[in-house]
Amino acid sequence: MDMDRIKEWMKVAQQYQGGDFWNRVFEQQGEEQPFQPFDQSDWTKDEPTSDIPKTDIYLTNTHVVVFIEVPGLKKEDIRLVGSGTELYVTIHVRPPVDPEQVILVQGERSFGEYSRRIELPEFIDASSLRTSLENGVMVLSYNRSQETLRDIVIE
Predict the structure, then answer these.
(1) How far apart (Å, rounded) are the C-alpha atoms in residues 148 and 48?
(2) Are the beta carbons of 22 and 13 closer than 8 angstroms?
(3) Which CATH architecture has domain 40-143?
(4) pLDDT category, 36, cuts 50, 70, 90?
(5) Which end of the chain has fewer beta carbons closer than 10 Å to its terminal beta carbon, N or C?
(6) In angstroms, how far is CA 1 from the centroid of its own chain?
(7) Separation of alpha carbons 1 and 10, rounded Å
(8) What Å distances lie between residue 106 and 43, 82, 101, 109, 126, CA to CA?
(9) Residue 113: beta bridge partners?
(10) Which neighbouring-strand residues pair with 19?
């Protein structure tokens, strides 16, 4: 391609791109740093979420059973509060190292406090409530209501 054709092509392209498009294309970029660590300020999350921790709820003939994923947490990092048919779960996930002492190279896990309200299928029976924590799963169970339907007298 000869130089006249290149200039003609650049002139047409300039009309469509406008401004100083070609100057920006050919500008020298500053020296790039070969390694950029992740922003560690995102290591904590304070906003409530609707799906953390993950849960499954089952009904048996006699019990309501709730499984709550809490991998790597100790019971001291978990708070449960129940009222009626609502279970409130708050977990505090801590980074395994002090973020001030290391450079994060790859970050896929989230840290901080998470809260969730879980609607249960039946009222919580506090007298039969049992919890256990094993292998990163908290299991909460309580007796199902044994009440049967009764006729209501209209006065």
Answers:
(1) 38
(2) yes
(3) Sandwich (2.60)
(4) very low
(5) C
(6) 56
(7) 13
(8) 12, 37, 15, 9, 43
(9) 92
(10) none
For the purposes of burial, counting CB atoms within 10 Å of the CB of 152, is it exposed (0-12), middle (13-18) or buried (19 or more)? exposed
Domain spans in the chain, listed from the N-terminal domain onward = 1-32, 40-143
**Degrees to nearest 5, angle at CA 86 with 66 and 116:** 75
3-state DSSP of 60-97: CCCEEEEEEECCCCCHHHEEEEEECCEEEEEEEECCCC
Interstrand relation of 44-45 and 111-119 (parallel, antiparallel or unpaired): parallel
* Cα 122 to Cα 126: distance, rounded to the nearest angstrom: 12
How confident is the model over 75-128, as pLDDT tens digits? 999 999 998 999 999 999 888 888 889 888 888 888 889 999 999 999 999 899
Helix segments in 2-154, DSSP class H? 3-17, 21-26
